[in-house]
Every structure is written in structure tokens, then in C-alpha cells.
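Researcher: Quick one. three chains, 481 residues in total.
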Amino acid sequence: MKIGFYTFMLLISTGLTAYGQALDLKFLDRLASKASETANVSLDGSLLQMAAKFLSKDDPDEAKVKQLIVGLKGIYVKSFEFDADGAYSESDVTAVREHLRAPDWSRIVDVHSRKQGENTEIYIRTGGKGFGGLVIISTEPRQLTVVSIVGKIDLDQLSDLGGNLGVPKLELEKTKPTKKDD
Amino acid sequence: MQQGTIDHVQEGLGTAAEGGIPDFAEIVRAHQGMIFSLAYHFLRDRGLAEEMAQEVFLELHRHLGSLESSAHLVFWLRKVASRKCIDQNRRRSFWPKFRLDEIPEPEAKTRETDTLLSGALGKLVASLPEKPRMVVVLRYQEDLDPAEISELLDMPVATVKSHLRRSLDILRDKLARTVGEIAL
Amino acid sequence: MSYLEEDLKAALRRVEAPPDFTARVLERLAAPEAPKRNWWAELALLLRPPRLQWVALSVIAGTVIPIAGIHEREQRRMEGEMAKQQLVYAVRLAGSKLHHVQKKVFEISQTDRHL
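Model:
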């Protein structure tokens, strides 16, 4: 479904409250044998709490993560990087989308770059009392990533951890005189 | 590099080959700009570039005795730096540190340089796939020809030329779009 | 050489290394070798990104460590550190994907506005 920028910004500034279980992504594990790099994260409630204890409030990024995960119930990642195009198939991605066909899941964004062959989809789950979870499916010719977050999360804070606050803009380069090292 | 420095480096290498202690600091000073620049233009991250450049020189220290000449040293440094940058980039791309704001570019502002354009081009180069990116950096930073790049990267000359051609096409296309944004 | 190639030469000119670069290299050379790590610390390092495939943290915590008979406190510390690293990685990955989409949506909205 298409979505305007301001509607999207409104959505991501709203917290998600989660109910329900994480996606079962174990079927993707067979891709690991073809991947040059694999990341597999599976942190449920008790592990999340354990991890939170080790986050340092002196490190700015870790402090932000600590704040972000207060309402989380789980975070799960399957990510594969391959040496060649075509190592995974569209049916692998379709299989993930099948899990998100239930009426309580909505795809809020689908961004596609034809030239780079990149695609990113974001789904949110609306439970009885509000939103229910977040799934990001990111595909590139040599990379497949699925992130599933269960629990209450502030998408604005999450996006901030991956980049700047607010709307990105090109900045003028500052320069200083230097001589070539020759 | 000044002739005096080349002679000093040669002397240092000769001393190392004879089992003596070369002036390693002099060798580092003579080549740090080249290696740091290679890493920076490839990785677009000053902190990582410095770390990579340090690793290259630490490895050089272990292999100094096996190098025979200044030319051999330069070839060795470029080869190892290229390999380490590509390896680091593979690790880094899987460990996202996506930032839009960057530490300002350490470039001179001269009458001949369009600073905005240089900055935009530098970023666009960093968006190329890793092997073509290294080819472009070696070609335009170090002024190497395809045969020299081919030897450094263990890549057929035809592949080097193809990477260069495609990269220029991609950069031309992306630049046209980016310059339009900068102009706004 | 085309204009683009000339611009590339300018954009990719060598830059100065940080001022005390040589000193830092020499410092590292002079530093004593790091002490040999215990095997469980090596295992923790191996499991840190971006090196190897990871196995589910619960498998590591549930089998390898108890089998090794590591002291309970060290075991919890190692589990916690690994969980933390995985958490930070996952959050940053999700954040960067979200940020990328945010940027793209903004660009598209700007394009739509100009049409």
C-alpha cells in the first residue's frame, strides 16, 4: 500500500505495543550453508533482560539501546550475505511474507530500487490493544535480512539509532588546508 | 615522494635486509599518507581508516626484512592495504554503522577544486561494490594503470578495465542526480 | 582524460594521516603482547560479529559452557556480554534499515512534490 511521507512519519512516531509470538524463521536456516556470512539473533524476554543489564549508560549508543528496549519482548534477526547473485530465491522471501498475511499484519512501506535491486518492506502488527510488532524484510542481490521485533518500541528512537535524528539532508563539507603527502 | 626520502627509505630497507634496525619510523612517515588515504577513500571512515593503516604498518614491520627495494615496499604496502580494506569492508557491511553526518573531509579547498563536488564524488565512490571501488581508488588516487592494478589485486587486466568502465558509468549517472540535490 | 576522471583525481587526492599517526604505530609496536586468553574467552571472541556464523545464544549457554564446567559467575558474565552484543547488533541493523526507508520515502515525497 502506498503511503505519504508525513503519514509514514506519523506512524513511526507512534509506539508499538506487542502481543503475540515472534515469527518462526527457522526455515531460512538452510540458506546458511550457501552464505559467506550469517547472523542469527534470537533474544527473547529473559535474554533481553540479561543483555540490558550489560548495557553501559556511559556509552551513548548503549544507553539509547537500553532505553529503546524497555518494552520489548523479543528481537530476532536472520541475515545472510552471499558471494554471488541468485543464491537465495524469491520463494524464500515469499515464505516470510506468508507469515505476514494474517489480517492483523499490515505492510506500511515497500521501498524498491530497481537499479540496485534493493527492496525493503516494513510490516506492523496491530493487536487488540494497539500495534503488535514489527518486521523488516530487506533484500539485495547478495543479501537477505529479516528482523522481527516483538514488543513495545519507538520507531523514531530505533531509526535514530540507525542514523540521524529527523529528516536526512546533504551537508556542506567543511574543509581545512592540507598538503599532499608526497 | 621527495628523492631524499626515497633514498632514506632505500637505505632503511637495505639495513633491514642486512639484519640491522631500519629507521622504521621514517618509512611510516614516508608512506602514511598513501596508506591512510587509500583506506579513507575506500572506507569513508577516518577511525577505521586509521586503524587499517596502523595494521598495515604493523604487518610491514613483521615483513620488513623480506623487502628488497623502495618499489617493492610501495607495491607491498598497496597490496596489503587493498586486501585489508576489502576484508574490513566485508566485516563492516555486516555490522551496520549507518550515519549520514560524517567527519569533515580533510581536503584542501583550492580554486581548482569544487569542494561540494569532491565530497559528493568521494561518497559515491564509497557506494561502489568493493572490488570496483578499490580499482577506482587505485586508479585515481595512485594514478596506477590497469596492468599495475591487475597485479596488485590479482585480477585479470580485462576485469580491471571492465570495472573502471562500469564504475565511471555508474558514477556519472549517480553524480548527475546528486548534483541536482546539492543545487537545491 | 574526461572531466569526470579529472574530478575523480581531485576527489581522491591523498590526504594527510592524523598528526601523531607514526607515534601511535610505534606505540603499538612497543606494547607488550596481549596475554593469552582462556579458551572460553576465545570462544566468546569467535562468536562476536563479524567473524563467524553464530549459533543461537541459548544453545551456547545451554550446552558448551556447562559442559566446560566454567564457574557460574563467569558463565553468566559471558552469556550477558554475548547477549548484549547480539542485541546491539540487531537494534542497529533494524535501525539502519528503518532509517534507509525513511530517507527513501522522503526522497520520493520530494520528487512527487516537484511533479
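Chain C has five helices and no strands.
Researcher: Thanks, that's what I needed.
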